[in-house]
Amino acid sequence: MIIDSHCHLTYDPMISSLDETIGRANKDGVKYLLTICTEDKGYIKILDIVNNYKCVYGTYGIHPHEAKNYKDISSEYIISQVKKSSKIIGVGETGLDFFYNHSDKKDQIKSFLEHIDASHKTNLPLIVHTRSAEMETLKILKEATRKKNLKILIHCFTGSKKFAFDLLDIGAYISASGVVTFKKSQDLAEAFKEIPTNRILVETDSPYLAPVPLRGKPNEPSFIIHTLKFLSDLKNIPFDKLAKSTTQNFFDLFGKLN
After folding, report:
1. What is the pTM of this model?
2. How far, in Å, CA of 18 to CA of 74, rounded?
3. Are 64 and 132 in contact (CB under 8 A)?
4. How far apart are CA 98 and CA 69, in angstroms?
5. Nearest-angstrom CA–CA distance, 82 and 61
6. If we measure between CA atoms, which residue out of 204, 237, 178 comes closest to residue 24?
7. Is 158 helix (H, G, I), strand (E, B) or coil?
């Protein structure tokens, strides 16, 4: 059994062929999919999908790129949205992206803190996007974990080995996407080689970041098998054993799924 811990089923081209997309994933052993919210206006689509597909669960959150459009977002509002379905099992994606800076840093940080507060209050995992913001992300998460236990998933990890182990020190789980399979990602691969297997999840971030050998194509959940195969070879762990481990890690973080 495999779980795609981060995909965007509400995005093209998957939204126009959900039956086929989810069917291919299930056929390739992907039993569950977690479709991720990035802005409020798209949340209704997520609710519709999780209500219509037994194997799909969802989250609610505002992506750091969108923080400028939701300056008044509050933890109370986030919680109210999460409560709309028992199949909404995470808060995010949220975090900091200082690479593109599509939103002002202050707006990103404010939004991030509101999501953290919502995660604390609901005890749901926080799905974190971080790019070119390692120091700031770690500082905020360290402070948050000092106050109260926080369930953290760093999605599509592309940071340094030091950052990875600093995150592990505060109890975070780390998710590998297709990026780890890219030829230019040798340092990232070395980091994942050393990250303990019991702290790794896998994802597609589809429709983005299709893994080798499908790089350049629109990504989809069924492609996750290539990322798992790469990690299996990298860590010298049988494919089935690694799939079982990453699935158990998902359950440890999010709880068992019905």
Report:
1. 0.97
2. 32
3. no
4. 17
5. 9
6. 204
7. coil
Tens of pLDDT, residue by residue, the chain (258 residues) = 999 999 999 999 999 999 999 999 999 999 999 999 999 999 999 999 999 999 999 999 999 999 999 999 999 999 999 999 999 999 999 999 998 888 999 999 999 999 999 999 999 999 999 999 999 999 999 999 998 899 999 999 999 999 999 999 999 999 999 999 999 999 999 999 999 999 999 999 999 999 999 999 999 999 999 999 999 999 999 999 999 999 999 999 999 997
Q: DSSP readout, 219-256?
A: P-GGGHHHHHHHHHHHHT--HHHHHHHHHHHHHHHH--
Q: Which residue has the tokens 């194997």?
A: 55
Q: Pull the structure tokens for residue 83.
A: 């409560």
Q: Which residue matches tokens 């939103």?
A: 103
Closest CA to 247 of 31, 22, 55: 31
Largest CA distance in the chain: 47
Give the burial string for 1-14 (b: 16+ CB within 10 Å, else e).
Answer: ebbbbbbbbbbeeb
Token reading at 70: 């939701």
Structure tokens at 22: 């989810």
Rounded CA-CA distance 95/59 in Å is: 14
Angstrom distance (rounded) from CA 213 to CA 187: 19
Q: Which two tokens stand for residue 14?
A: 């998957």
**CA 29 – CA 176 distance, rounded (Å):** 18
The answer to whether 201 and 153 are in contact (CB under 8 A) is yes
